[in-house]
Specification:
12 helices; eight-stranded mixed beta sheet; 31% helix; alpha+beta; binds flavin-adenine dinucleotide; 430 residues; globular; single chain
Length: 430
């Protein structure tokens, strides 16, 4: 695997709880289930399997949380990219309702796990705001808030003064507040999941890349780059934006897009009174969305688009530094302490995909950039499916592995789409 921007300079690695020991797999072993990928999805699957007494082994190429799970914005956002009415339109009343309930509860899964396993994770449940950057999007978020409100969710529409007062910026024309959401230290949460899974009996092996998955009789053999093999009844692949060539054509079912973030130095009490004073987190309605929050040490973290390729230097984050100053003029010139990025797997239909290309092989692909809650909850659901063989445990039907046409040209067409979105999204207001 090529080395994307290393984890070590990132904010989360500098402030995370210590990692549990996850020794490399040197000797071949056997298990009921072998999980490939130690992000939220793989770790949550292993934890929930182990809690049911099912022997799980996780193979992680680097360390738990090395992928998107240790690099993300730490915003815990319930729901999918689609609104409840759209979901019913797509899946029908019964399946749609189940998917809505699943999606609405994904933030609960995160906060419940943190509490249940007493994880050493800074967290805050003050809500997620989606800021509307155009008048048309004000109508969109109003409808979104109405739909969730009808379903009894603790949400509200925010008019322009209300959103400005909660955010401390006048750059949005409105928004909605979803009180189910909140914030976590994402790498600490990944490590908390790993610790809980180990305590429940799962084995996690870092520095152990899976290189081949082959059927051997009634079982599976998962070969590793270290020469060791795991023999298991079932395999779960949760490699998402870091998917390689482990399973034919899987990587080509999504586009792995880099999302970039910067973090300031801690703001200090005076500035903290004027920047997101009530501690919500935000992402907005742009197609190339901006997202920002304060962390538990009072740093502003600003995230958004960046070059498709891996970063080459500080200039690849320069646009985000400019956004910080425009969004919060009082922060202009504030030193930037951390810059980092990570990969998000985006599917063509903007839905997470579940595949079962062969009996006993389960694949979760396409986190869409909203995976803190989603992947934790999908891991739980996949463990239930494995334990019960009841496909109703899964929120989504299985779909075939369908590569995106001309996937090899992704750099070209992502570049074209990004340019188009930049033009249509417009700049920051005022
Ligand atoms: C910059 C950024 C910001 C984001 N912000 C948010 C946010 O604020 N809120 C939110 O909800 N979501 C956010 N997301 C999305 C969220 O982080 C992801 O959806 C989620 O972490 C995906 O979890 P995962 O377990 O599916 O994949 P990952 O965490 O990416 O884990 C995949 C793992 O698989 C391993 N792997 C790959 N191939 C192999 C192999 N062959 N053998 C062994 N291991 C392998 C990798 O090393 C990696 O650790 C963000 C993502 C990024 C990148």
């Amino acid at each position: 695997m090529t080395e994307p921007f290393p984890l070590s300079p990132a904010l989360w690695a500098a402030t995370a709880a210590p990692a549990p020991p996850t020794p490399a797999l040197e000797e071949s072993t056997s298990a009921d289930v072998c999980v490939v990928g130690g992000g939220y999805a793989g770790l949550s699957t292993a934890l929930h399997l182990a809690e049911r007494g099912i022997r799980a082994v996780v193979l992680e190429a680097r360390e738990p949380g090395w992928g998107a799970s240790g690099r993300n914005g730490g915003q815990v956002i319930p729901g999918l990219k689609f609104d409840p009415d759209e979901i019913v339109g797509m899946y029908g009343a019964e399946r749609g309702q189940r998917l809505i309930e699943f999606a609405g509860a994904t933030a609960d899964v995160v906060f419940d796990l943190i509490e249940k396993h007493r994880m050493d994770v800074p967290w805050l449940r003050t809500g997620w705001i989606q800021g509307a950057h155009t008048a048309a999007n004000v109508e969109l978020v109003k409808s979104r808030a109405e739909q969730w409100s009808r379903l009894g969710a603790p949400v509200e529409f925010l008019d322009e003064p209300a959103v400005a007062s909660l955010l401390g910026t006048d750059r949005y024309l409105g928004g909605w507040l979803d009180r189910r959401g909140g914030a976590i230290q994402p790498l600490s949460y990944a490590r908390g999941l790993a610790k809980a899974a180990i305590a429940a009996g799962a084995r996690i092996h870092g520095d152990t890349s899976a290189t081949r998955v082959v059927r051997t009789g009634a079982r599976w053999s998962i070969e590793t780059a270290r020469g060791s093999t795991v023999t298991a009844d079932r395999v779960v692949i949760c490699t998402n934006g870091y998917t390689g060539e482990l399973w034919p054509q899987l990587r080509q079912t999504a586009i792995a897009i880099n999302s970039y973030q910067v973090a300031t130095e801690p703001l200090g009490d005076d500035l903290l009174r004027s920047v997101m004073p009530e501690g919500q987190v935000l992402s907005d309605t742009r197609k190339l969305l901006l997202y920002f929050r304060l962390d538990h040490t009072g740093r502003l973290i600003m995230g958004g688009r960046g070059p498709f390729r891996e970063p080459k230097g500080e200039r690849d984050w320069a646009h985000l530094v400019r956004v910080v100053a425009k969004m919060f003029p009082q922060l202009a010139g504030m030193p930037i302490a951390y810059r980092w990025c990570g990969r998000i797997a985006v599917t063509r239909d903007h839905l997470p995909h579940l595949h079962e290309p062969a009996p006993g092989l389960l694949i979760d692909m396409g986190c869409q950039g909203r995976g803190v809650g989603l992947q934790s909850a999908l891991g739980k659901a996949m463990a239930e499916y494995i334990a019960t063989s009841d496909a109703n445990a899964l929120p989504l039907p299985f779909t075939p592995i369908e590569p995106i046409p001309f996937h090899g040209l992704q750099r070209v067409y992502v570049g074209a789409v990004v340019t188009w979105y930049r033009l249509t999204d417009g700049g920051l207001r005022r």
